[in-house]
Amino acid sequence: MLVFVLRRILQTIPVIFGVTILVFLMIHLIPGDPAQIIAGEAASDAQVQQMRDRLGLNDHLLVQYGRFLGDIMQFDLGNSIRSGNPVSAEIGSRFWVTFELAFFSTLLSIFIGIIAGVISATKRHTFLDTSIMVIALFGLSMPNFWLGLMLIQYFALPPLQWFPVSGWGSIEHMVLPVITLGTAGAAIIARMTRSSMLEVINQDYIRTARAKGVKEQIVTYKHALRNALIPVVTVVGLQFGTLLGGTVLTETVFSINGLGRLVIDSINARDFPIVQGTVLVIALLFVLVNFLVDISYRFLNKRIELD
Amino acid sequence: MEPSSNIIEVNDLRTSFFTEEAEVKAVDGVSFSVPSGKTLGIVGESGSGKSITSLSIMRLIQEPGQIVGGEINFKSDNLLDKSESEMRRIRGNEISMIFQEPMTSLNPVFTVGDQISEAYRIHQGLSKKQALQKSLEMLELVGIPSPKDRLKRYPHELSGGMRQRVMIAIALACKPELLIADEPTTALDVTIQAQILRLINNLQDELGMSVVLITHDLGVVAETCDYVAVMYAGKIVEYADVQTLFESPKHPYTVGLLSSLPRHDIDQEELQVIKGMVPSPTNMPEGCRFAPRCPFATDLCKEQLPTLDDLEDGNQVRCWVYSDKWDGDPEVNVKDDYGTATSS
Predict the structure, then answer these.
(1) For this UniProt entry, what is the primary localization, expressed as one broad class (chain A) (predicted)?
(2) How many Å apart are CA B220 and CA B265, to the nearest integer?
(3) pTM across the whole model
């Protein structure tokens, strides 16, 4: 297991380098001159030249990249052009909002998805199964900004007004955005769990468990589900990783000050140190989540060999 | 035979699978009994209904299958009258089962120790520690080397033979009175087969249990069984003690099976085969189900299904030849004439 973890860590290193290279090149790939953008439209040629010197844009690309890497190592992602605050501080204050949103949405997807999937599988070809699968298809096909707007329409606006329309902070604030973001995931997980359970439930070892005198509920939730969840874990991990970078629409609909809105605002303002920093953080988190998924996959599925 | 001396008596068991088109009668009126402490072999080709019979005894038939009739009297209680929770207390405790596929019959995500322990925890309410201790003893009993280490292993870390030993350990954990072994050696290497069969036989003596051994291998039957039921197309065609079955088989199908065994004591040009195929359960012949393949079949055989009749020696056979109604050659001897009848 330890060897496996070490190998996985080693395998992520090239990915991380790739990410830093792409993020670094962003400055040079976007249209326009970064020095000109930072110095402002009205700046004179001399000022732009001075800015270029200050940013080190005249150095060789490799030198710049080396400096960029060195800065990252010290958690220095530069300063925001708009506010002048360090990028890490700007991201830090928004990060937890997005993390909470993604985390609770994933939790909701797992909870609803697995329960619905198991019920669907154990009651296969019944009305209940069909209903769950139709609802899941509906949840999967619904664009989440539309779902968010509908939830606001019916539960945040009069007459019900159960939840606040926008903002973040209290549990009341979380309910609608989490449902908005978690629905599609719940639907995917429900469908995955169902098909995975149906496959597992016909395995010989399930018959062995029954022949041992194990209760049907325990056969389902211990012997079958534990095996059926192995492929589901991958989906859950990817789901969470995707949500970390994919909360933009939901954050916009509910006016939540998370990373997603930070990126959008920064792109509009050409505040590229922030864009760079956020993309880097989200990409690294995605790598981390994938790493954790691999580890848990290995933990759940004893048959994966070390090769 | 005294009824009380039988551990299990199956009467007119009928199990069917319901498809959209038709009812498929996989087991169609099967009756047999297993004397206490003895081994009954159920022999037949694939699709003869022998596995379904064993799963019916365990009441483990899954949809769309269903036991539609009959009685399974185990220690004078009819298992078909039991509730699901009563059956759960019997499964793995009083009646256990081992299966054909040791490679896939163990749960891949639990350790060997967990899987044996579960039987003790369910049926004897032991603590985790006690159950593991008992599991260790069981692994020793089934002859697994370094059992203490194996307790913590996962199934994929063991060979096929070792896994089948683990399956036996699970099945025998609670010292059942009846063990149903469904082709326990079919998936194993020949050398391992003999070891596993010997193990089952030894444990049977040690624990004083009765065994129903499902197999298609007559060699296995000869080695291990006391009585044999030969099944064909969902019905028993012959029931006899093992010696009689091999020395003087009565039913043409049994004779066919025996003569299709390769022999080393006589010079054979080629292997004997039973011509034709097992009839499809959706399209059963009207009369005797073996009639289309039987070299002795007469019009009577093709029109009417014979009953399973008692013979003078207490054995049973389902064949018109042995009845008063027989309309063929009155001098026929199924065993001796089989070879000439098939070649003509």
Answers:
(1) membrane
(2) 19
(3) 0.80
